[in-house]
Specification:
This protein is mainly alpha-helical. Helix content is 71%, strand content 0%. The longest helix is centred in the middle third of the chain and has 18 residues, at 24-41.
C-alpha cells in the first residue's frame, strides 16, 4: 500500500466519526485495526499521524 491508500483510509474513518458520533467506540476499534494492518504493511508507518488524520476537524 502507499501513502495515498493510508490517506484514503484515514479520510473514510474521519467521515465515519463525523457522521456517526454515537458509534465512536466501534469506529475507534476499526481505526486501531486499520492502523495495525498498515503498520504490518509498512514498518515506517506513522501510527499517531494516522490517528490524527482520522480525527474530525474541529471548528
Amino acid at each position: 500500500m502507499s501513502r495515498k491508500h493510508y490517506r484514503a483510509f484515514a479520510q473514510v474513518l474521519r467521515q465515519a466519526r463525523e457522521y456517526y458520533p454515537k458509534d465512536r467506540d466501534a469506529i475507534n476499534f476499526v481505526v486501531r485495526q486499520v492502523a495495525d494492518i498498515c503498520a504490518e504493511d509498512n514498518r515506517a508507518f506513522r501510527r499517531q499521524q494516522f490517528y490524527d488524520a482520522a480525527e474530525p476537524e474541529t471548528t
